[in-house]
Amino acid sequence: MTLTPVPVFYPTQHGLHAPEAEYDNGLITPYAEVAERIEVIKAALLALPFVQLEPATAVISISELEQVHAPELLNYLRVMSEWSARHEGRYYYPSVFPGYFARGVGVNGDRVLGGMFAFDIHAPIGMGTETAVFQSAASALSAAQVVLEGKTNVAYALCRPPGHHAGRSFSGGYCYLNNAVLAANRLKALGKGAILDIDYHHGNGTQDMVWDDPEIFFASLHADPAFEYPYYCGYVAETGGPHAPDTIANFPLPKQTSDELYLTTLHAALEAIEAFAPNWLVVSLGFDTFGEDPICTFALSEGIYQEIGKHIKKLALPTVLVQEGGYAVSKLGDLAQNFMVGITGF
Ligand SMILES: [Zn+2]
Known about the structure:
Blueprint: E1 6-10, E2 21-24, E3 27-30, H1 36-46, E4 51-55, H2 62-65, H3 71-85, H4 109-112, H5 114-117, H6 129-148, E5 154-157, H7 179-187, E6 193-197, H8 204-210, E7 216-223, E8 248-253, H9 259-276, E9 281-285, H10 304-313, E10 319-323, H11 332-344
The structure holds zinc ion (ZN).
């Protein structure tokens, strides 16, 4: 068997997005979603003999983005990036959330827009954010395209910023546009498919976007929202909208989840996906499930990521890997390598 290179799509300008701080539980702390995350993963993947780096140079099509995102969200990204450019690159943090009382928008509309297009304060916008977000989306779309064309069975999009908390018209949780859903939308040319989300946090944005879509199955393993972000969804009872009953399968997991429990649960999620008989797979790939991750409560080992990859490989589906979270920066390269060896079988 010849060693087909696995393309890894890399957004060369992701570093333009670099907020310094986040606010959580009364503390102002360094922004955890740092550029170094992607650089560490990229370096580790390039050390594998079967990986080929592809800069994400595809021009993003607004009309394709608007197939899954509201034009108003795209406008918000542009307006606030421009606002930042006029204010010494300062990052804009939404601070007024009008969901409960809005009757209109005042003359300072640009500065209050955020509350209409963000569900939390964890997705600030700087002057380079729009460019970085578009390139992150382009990475996912490029990876989907090579899989769609049958050039490879697995492609990896090193998306940054990540995407699975972003919905049709909202940003939040370090996410602005939903890279996984954008990839899935393009793969629909192959018929119905599945998104498997194995980030530590529930992919609330993804779930919201595919909620009533009978062509996409969404399975997610994540920390139980009863104690973990994003708190308001990711529960077992959420199974899909009226046109798409039983197309959502949530697997909330407890604190101290072990390798064994994780693999058993993954097995159940993969069985649910198989029962849907999908033609393609998008994996929202987060490494914040790792036991040493600073924001994680699980107890997963470094070696388990190879097993996770092996399990997913058994589906034997054309697969797009979309980078989501993972904040144990110095370990991310090892975790990504392990996963990649598992899912490719090289
Ligand atoms: Zn996460």
